[in-house]
Write a structure and sequence with these properties.
Number of strands of chain A: 8
Structural class of chain A: mainly alpha
Strand order of the largest sheet of chain A: 1-2
CATH class of chain B: Mainly Alpha
Largest sheet of chain A: 2 strands, antiparallel
Order of helices and strands of chain B: HEHHEEHH
Low-confidence stretches of chain A: 200-211, 299-317
Largest interface: A-B, 21 and 24 residues
Shape of chain A: elongated
CATH topology of chain B: Arc Repressor Mutant, subunit A
Oligomer: heterodimer
Radius of gyration of chain A: 43 Å
Largest sheet of chain B: 3 strands, antiparallel
CATH superfamily of chain B: Winged helix-like DNA-binding domain superfamily/Winged helix DNA-binding domain
Strand content of chain B: 5-15%
């Protein structure tokens, strides 16, 4: 046996033992480990073995034989994170044993556990309903009632510690609980919105893109505009601008070549006028309203005269205006008297 | 039966007995106990016990420098230690008699109940 190997092994072991006793006062450690190297060396020579064992266990044995308290739990540089979490948990669980108020509170909440089971089943149902459209938010048909009942029974049984024969199942249940707790605010919000407004989930699906953009009249979309002259004759090719000179586009997205709206009874489709070269003239009214089936057939230069346009005759050519210029309406022509005053005859 | 568990209860008296005739340093005491038959005794248990007995005033201690190696810390028994050893020897004898009686297969079961009550 090489002496240098032995002495380095012994030194390493001894320092590990001292490290494991580091929570004790320095003089206590000194007393306990005084002569440790000599003893270890002698033992190693005696047994002809370099195996000195586990220094931590050695320190523990030394400590308990000397009548000292076991290593403080808060030593741990080397302690793993989960281990310290476990200690925090353990300390946390100890709290009720030390405080009567907490004990009573705990008993109170423990009696509320069935409520939690109920709530967990409901939250699980809402999560499934949110993920899968087959379930409606409120159990209204037999299938929904069946799913809800199964979840309820399972939740209660799990809560009573039944139906979980394997340990991993309990971990799974813990995971489910965590998911439920995290999604509770969303589930509650969604459930409340459905309870107060059952059609809320459909509200924006058909007309959604019109509700906030495009031409609006008291919040409702304006699909088309019909203009008449002073004689009650319908006008065509009326180009409209707002106060800033921006075109009054009736389409939510003026870059589209057609607009498609759904009403309760039918679908309505519009195409912009081709009268203004260079852009899609969504502000030339009335807009042509071809059958929706033909929208796809419309070419880039639609011939609007081929479509039947209700309430408006064929579109007239409109002189292009600069988009930024504010159109100045020409003053209405003053009617010229066509009648000459009757001559007075003498 | 796990004899290390048994040893824990008698470590004090065993260590005191091991140095009653001659002072010894840590591993020296371990060696004496092992050669006396207590093979399973742990080094650290003996060192800890020596330290505790010293703190309790039953032992004296002195350091002997060794040539070339680290110094040795010797422990010796004092009068208080001898008194402690005598008392423990007595109670051990009593205890051993009781246990022998208890474990003696020819003994009456009544005795078991009286003594072995836990």
């Amino acid at each position: 046996m090489s002496t240098t190997t032995l002495s380095s092994e012994v030194a390493a072991f001894a320092s590990a033992v001292r490290a494991a006793l580091a929570d004790l006062p320095a003089d206590e450690v000194e007393d306990l480990t005084d002569g440790l190297e000599a003893d270890l060396t002698e033992r190693a020579e005696d047994t002809e073995s370099l195996d000195l064992g586990d220094p931590v266990a050695y320190a523990q044995e030394l400590r308990s034989a000397a009548g000292l308290a076991p290593a403080a739990r808060t030593t741990p540089r080397s302690e793993s994170l989960p281990e310290s979490w476990r200690e925090v948990l353990r300390d946390f669980r100890q709290l009720p044993k030390e405080h009567a108020v907490l004990r009573r509170l705990g008993a109170f909440f423990e009696s509320l556990r069935p409520l939690w089971w109920l709530f967990r089943a409901w939250a699980a149902y809402m999560i499934i309903a949110a993920l899968d459209g087959a379930l409606s938010a409120a159990p209204i048909n037999p299938f929904n009632v069946f799913v809800g009942t199964v979840l309820l029974i399972a939740s209660v049984q799990f809560g009573r510690g039944k139906w979980l024969p394997r340990r991993w199942m309990r971990y799974l249940l813990t995971a489910v609980n965590v998911v439920v707790i995290i999604t509770v605010p969303f589930a509650v919000a969604w459930g409340l919105s459905l309870a107060t407004n059952p059609s809320a989930s459909y509200a924006d699906s058909s007309t959604g893109d019109l509700s906030s953009t495009g031409l609006l009249m008291n919040g409702s979309p304006v699909w088309n505009v019909f203009a008449y002259d002073s004689n009650g004759q319908p006008l065509t090719g009326v180009q409209l601008f707002d106060q800033d000179g921006h075109p009054l586009s009736a389409a939510a997205d003026p870059s589209q070549e057609s607009a498609h709206y759904s009403t309760d009874t039918s679908d309505v489709c519009f195409v912009p006028s081709a009268a203004v070269p260079g852009r899609l003239a969504w502000n030339v009214f009335p807009l042509a309203q071809p059958p929706c089936a033909d929208i796809n057939a419309i070419t880039s230069e639609p011939n609007q005269s081929t479509f039947e346009v209700p309430a408006s005759p064929e579109a007239a050519t409109v002189a292009p205006l600069a988009a930024t210029s504010v159109p100045t309406p020409s003053p209405a022509p003053t009617p010229t008297p066509t009648q000459t005053p009757p001559a007075t005859t003498q | 039966m796990d004899s290390t568990q048994l040893l824990k209860g008698v470590l004090d008296v065993a260590v005191l007995a091991a140095i009653q005739d001659a002072d010894g340093y840590g591993y020296d005491v371990v060696r004496r106990l092992r050669s006396a038959g207590l093979e399973e005794i742990g080094d650290a248990s003996v060192y800890g016990t020596l330290r505790r007995l010293y703190n309790a005033g039953a032992l004296t201690s002195y350091v002997v420098p060794s040539d070339g190696g680290p110094h040795r810390k010797y422990y010796g028994i004092n009068s208080q230690g001898r008194a402690m050893l005598a008392a423990q020897r007595e109670s051990w004898a009593e205890f051993a008699t009781t246990m022998n009686g208890l474990l003696d297969t020819t003994n009456r079961p009544l005795a078991v109940r009286k003594i072995g009550e836990k």
